[in-house]
Design brief:
Elements: H1 8-15, H2 28-55, H3 61-94
Length: about 100
């Protein structure tokens, strides 16, 4: 059985990114940091839209509801990814060497 290693180009094609230089590829920590920053940005955006709606600057409640829904879904995804990472770590720590 031949096992083909995953190369950077294959991963980029799968993720839909077009980063032609492997030297500029983000590390796992950078990707994780960027994802957490996006979650934070969505939370801040939702909070600002709620404040704008309460003050009267935003008249369309649909925009506020959509921003709140996006923030909620992004937070749920982040929590699930964290849970899976912890489960994977615990599984690795249980392995006998």
């Amino acid at each position: 059985m031949n096992i083909i290693p995953i190369k950077g180009n294959m991963l980029q094609a799968t993720l839909g990114t077009d980063n032609s230089q492997d030297s500029n590829a983000d590390s796992f920590g950078q990707v994780l940091s960027n994802a957490i920053q996006k979650v934070n940005d969505s939370q801040v955006k939702a909070d600002e839209m709620i404040k704008g709606f309460l003050v009267g600057d935003i008249q369309d409640i649909h925009q506020v509801t959509i921003a709140m829904g996006e923030a909620k879904i992004m937070m749920q995804l982040a929590v699930e990814v964290k849970n899976k990472a912890i489960e994977a770590y615990q599984e690795l720590s249980r392995m006998q060497v």
